[in-house]
Amino acid sequence: MKVIFFGTPAFASEILNHLLFHHVPIAAVVTQPDRPKGRSAALNPSPVKLVAEQAGIPILQPEKSSQETFLHELVQFQADLYVVVAFGQILPQKLLDLPPLGCINVHASLLPSYRGAAPMQRCLMDGVTETGVCVQKMVRQLDAGDVIAEAKISVPVERTFGELQKELCDLSKSLLLSVIHQYEKGIPDAKPQDSSLVTMAPKIETEECEIDWTWPAEEIHNKVRALSPRPGAWCWIEIDGEKKRLKVLRTKIIPKTGSVKQFSLKEGLIFCGQEAIQLIEIQLEGKKAMPAADWLRGLKSSPQLT
User: Fold this and answer.
1) Which tens digits make up the pLDDT trace of 111-128?
2) Cβ proximity of 237 and 270 under 8 Å
3) Minimal CA–CA distance to 8: which of 41, 51, 38, 72?
4) pLDDT (tens digit per residue) in 1-10
5) From the CB of residue 242, how many other CB atoms can be counted at a distance below 10 Å?
6) What CA–CA distance (Å, rounded) separates 215 from 159?
7) CATH fold of 206-305, please?
C-alpha cells in the first residue's frame, strides 16, 4: 500500500517522521510552497518539506491543490491512500476521488466539536476539560467526514496551546499509524458525525489577541493560555511615561477583590472583579520571554495598564 502525505507545519512534520520511522511507504509528500520569512524575506521551506528532503521523498508544492497539472502529477504516483495533516489548503472533490482507498485527515479535536482551522486554541478559550484527536474520512465539507478513530485527553486549567499541541501531536502519531494499518486490510468502518452537535473553530484573528481587562478573570486566563506562545495575548502598558506592548504568556487566577486596572507591583496582580490575574510569564516588546516576577523586580515604578 502506497501513501501520499499532505502537511505543512511542525505538527505535521513530527507525524510524518513517526510514519517514516515505522516504515509506512510514503510515495510522495505534498506541502505548501516556500514562503518569505523575516526581514530578509528569504524563502523558507515548510517543516514537512525539510523532513521529506532528508528522507529523499518526492515533494510537490502546488499553489492551489485544484490545479490540473498538480492532479496529473499525483496520479503518476499511483498511491492507494492520501493522508492529510494540517496541509493548509481545501482539497477539491477531484483530488479526494483520486486514491482507491480515499483520503483521511487528522483533526485536533473530538469531532463534531471544533471543526475548522483553530480547534486547539478555541477549545482552550472555551475552558474545556477534555479534548483529543480524530482520524476522519475526508469529504468536500470541512471536517465533516465519518470518524474512523479518536483518542481523548483531559485538559488541566493551566495547559497552554503550545503544551496542548505537543500532547495532541504525540496522541495523533499512534492513532494515525493504527488507522493506516487498518487500511492495509481494507477500508475500515467509520461513525457518522452528529450534525446537531457541530461547533466551529475559525482561525484566530489579529484583533482577538488584545486583552480586555474588563473581562472576568477566567476568560482572560483562558485567552492567554489559548494564544501562548503564539501569536500571544497582549496589552498596552505605560512604564515611566513610555507606552509599550506587553505579551502575556502565562497567568494564574487568584481569588481576590479589586478594581479594573489596579496593578500590584509586588505580586504582579491585575484585579478583575471578584478575582485577580497573576502574571506568571511575559514578554515585553523587543525582549525575550521571562518570568513576570523577574521583570517586575527590575522596574523602578509600577507599570500602568492603558
Assistant:
1) 999 999 999 999 999 999
2) no
3) 51
4) 999 999 999 9
5) 7
6) 20
7) Methionyl-tRNA Fmet Formyltransferase; Chain A, domain 2 (3.10.25)
